[in-house]
Fold this sequence. Notes:
- The chain is an alpha/beta fold.
- It has 3 domains: 23-88, Arc Repressor Mutant, subunit A; 95-142 and 388-493, Aspartate Aminotransferase, domain 1 (Alpha-Beta Complex), CATH 3.90.1150; 145-384, 3-Layer(aba) Sandwich (Aspartate Aminotransferase, domain 2).
- Helix content is 40%, strand content 14%.
- The protein has helices at residues 23-36, 49-56, 60-72, 114-128, 146-159, 174-184, 201-213, 228-236, 254-264, 286-298, 356-366, 372-382, 385-412, 438-447, 478-493; strands at 76-79, 83-86, 132-133, 197-200, 219-224, 240-247, 251-252, 267-272, 303-307, 331-336, 347-351, 418-420, 427-431, 450-451, 453-454, 467-471.
- The strands form 4 sheets. An 8-stranded mixed beta sheet has the order 4-11-10-9-8-5-6-7, with helices on both faces. Strands 12-13-16-15 form a 4-stranded antiparallel beta sheet.
- Strand 12 (418-420) and strand 13 form a beta hairpin.
- The structure holds pyridoxal-5'-phosphate (PLP).
- Pyridoxal-5'-phosphate binds next to helix 7.
Amino acid sequence: MDMQPPPFAAATATPAPAPALPIYRRLAEHYLSAIQSGTLAPGDRMPSVRDLMRQHHVSLSTALQTLRHLEEGGWLEARPRSGYFVRQPRRAAIRPVGEPNVLAPLDPAQYVGIHEQVSDFIARRQLQAPAIDLSGMSCAPELYAVEALKNAAIRALREQPSLLTSPMPINGNVTFRQVVARRALNAGIRIGADDVVVTHGCIEALNLALRAVAQAGDTIAVESPTYFGLLQTLESLGMRALEIPTSPQTGISIEALELAIQTYGNIKAVVVVPTLQNPLGCIMPDSHKERLVALCERCAVPLIEDDAYSELADGDVAPSAAKVWDRSGNVIYCASLNKVLAPGMRLGWMTSGKWHERVKMLKFAYTRANEEWTQITAANYMGSPAYDRHLRRLRGNLKEQREQMAEAIAGYFPSETRLSVPDGGVGLWVELPRGLSSKAVFAAALDQGIGVSPGVIFSNSDRFDHYLRLCCGKPFTHELDQALRKLGGIVERLPG
Ligand SMILES: Cc1ncc(COP(=O)(O)O)c(C=O)c1O
């Protein structure tokens, strides 16, 4: 069937792409959303180069670039002398990762050992420095607004040269806190600048939150699998992680959590990542967030919400934070700008409900205030419309990279591999076939210059040893494609 798309500028179900993208990318996104929504189905013929030029008033090279870009992304195939056709994405054939057994007995609260295990993987990766590193969770530096941030930093120092030599405001720069409070409205959180404590990334916020509500020897309920940094933090604080089954689709099982709270009686806090959970990538439905907040409130267990990723969710409307349903100050909300604004500035923040004064005291006692020039730089940039443009561009790039990587995994990994492609973020969670050990894949991949995160570090048990987490924060290049081909070969050949 010959498709006659609407003019490029016509309103579509999806919001207009960021204007800063080159025209061919915007045109490609226009057709990509038609493919993803099913308006253009597999087997449909794409408009010809000539049609594209006429309908969208673009040049020959833009029309060609658009089609090639979609072809490289695996969305189109060129048929000799017939033109371009929509392809059946290979990843459509790959099954999503499995659901956990929520009825299985929970592990006894254990905590010793993960620190050594994580440090060992990090040390081995540093020693061999892989040429293609898919193990982190940050975006390639070029995806951030390098030039604009540099200018904002220069302006901050030019206007206030004494910034580097003066003492810093204890709870953070007030303009930065105002900007943060204003932006928190996007996630549905209504707070003032005085409710914000600025931190060194989300990890410091989590540390402060845990210290505010619990102490060494206490048990903390966490998702399973969970971010290995949280397991390290708990271990370093002498606290015990109780892992609660977590669905790759809907997040922590509220039934299993309720049962655990009733059974164990000594759970001092619950830590969750409701949006774009690491490593699963799932987004908890709003109804679950509401039930989770209500459960923690009813049982008088503080809820620590880790929201490091929600600004990277696809689309222009950020998912609501669980904090939105907090009526009593029982939710401590921790956020980060490291993934969205600039990993090099190590800025995070938190708003701590009932524990606000205690958190302020702990922040002062443990680390003192953050550097002020980073906060002023961030406030300069985040307070301008350029920040929203940057976020739209970043989300668009990540979505495209994620889909290209998923397509490559579907093509190169054995067919029994399972993968769920999340609606945002920088990670892909891959279930290996034949119960293959992620430790073996990690070692073999590193020998071939590829870094991956083995599933085993996301739990205190071995339960996730047959998973890998792969980062899709880097542009999809030929080298990356070839690395995924090699990785698929390793997974194919290793004995299960
Ligand atoms: C879920 C989660 N929480 C917290 C952090 C730490 O964030 P930051 O780098 O802002 O300290 C990370 C980092 O990867 C993460 O994935």
